[in-house]
Write a structure and sequence with these properties.
Elements: H1 13-22, H2 27-33, E1 39-47, H3 49-60, E2 65-68, E3 80-87, H4 88-98, H5 105-120, E4 129-135, H6 150-163, E5 167-171, H7 184-201, E6 206-209, H8 213-222, E7 226-229, H9 238-246, E8 249-253, H10 271-288, E9 296-299, H11 308-316, E10 329-330, H12 336-342, H13 350-362, E11 367-370, H14 373-387
Amino acid sequence: MTPPPRILLLNNEKDVRDELRKIGVHSEGVRVMAPKGVFRAVKLSGVKPIAANILKQEMLSRGGEAAVSHGTIAYSVKSTDVIVFGTLRQFSELAAKLRRHQFGLPELAEKINDSLRRHNKQPGTRRTRVMGILNVTPDSFSDGGRHFSEDAAVARGIEMAHEGADIIDVGGESTRPGAKKVSAKDELRRVVPVIRRLKKLVKIPISIDTTKSLVARRALQAGAKIINDVSGLHSDRKIAKVAADFGAALILMHMRGNPRTMQRNPEYPDLIGEILEYFCEGIKIAEDSGVPRSNLIIDPGIGFGKTTGHNLEILARLRELKCLGVPVMVGTSRKSFIGNVLKLPAGERFEGTAATVAVSIQNGADIVRVHDVGQIVRVARMADAIARR
């Protein structure tokens, strides 16, 4: 019996080339057809009507499409967002033509090319990195107080390294919804001794989870190599200078408001668009302070100023963040949106966490931040075998 017509899921040119070769297409045919087999929808923001109209006509002439707001063709709007639909080949031809136009279209062509190149780029490593969470706090939402003493924190850090963690993230201030602020003095007292001891006992990098430049500097002096700023440089911009001074990696997380206000009816007209704008601002601050783009990592901030629906949408559309050209970290571990979906307390959310980790890896995550390191390392390896085959 002949199988029914099959809908192929072709996410990149490699997938297309593999399928073409399977049916015996000549090598030259593979070369010509591969970029025609990958479809993309690219959203542009704030385009002037004259440029949008030219772009639309140029894409239509190549068999693609471009959607613009009502009023663009009559120039009755000051600017419009544009969604351009086409294959990689059509986008390549479009860029070549736009470079010969004016009205900012050559620059727009380069931006489109850059985003497509970053989105299509294959992972730089063969596996997803696992960051272990080490909360040296009495009030974190899931494990507050469990590793609050210095000895307990150090012991857990060593244990996570043995379980296969690639990074240990040490934090001295809870960022759960409604959490109280902690002074820099208290935060330093909690984290610096732990980092100093772990630096001598484990071989993997240590990250400092803080929004304070003073804490970041002292933590790096004690041996940390990464700064994880949940405020994305929107709380203390001097963190960027600290990262630049030490050559440290810098993680920028998206958060609406602060831990005390972030869950007060968060609304987003364009969730992913707002997150991207937020990161563009943070990346510019970092680069202007001397942090190279190669040292930057972004985290969409699951649970930070988002509803359950927002969190699920981020995980489903995670790959859209790849247009920034920096690694993406995702932290879903035991969070309340999992509890809302499964109707379970924090201590019973491991399976839900594992599912979100697998989906995140399939959708482009480079690092996952978790409590249950040993089990999630195995989940990540299995997900990698599928996503990075």
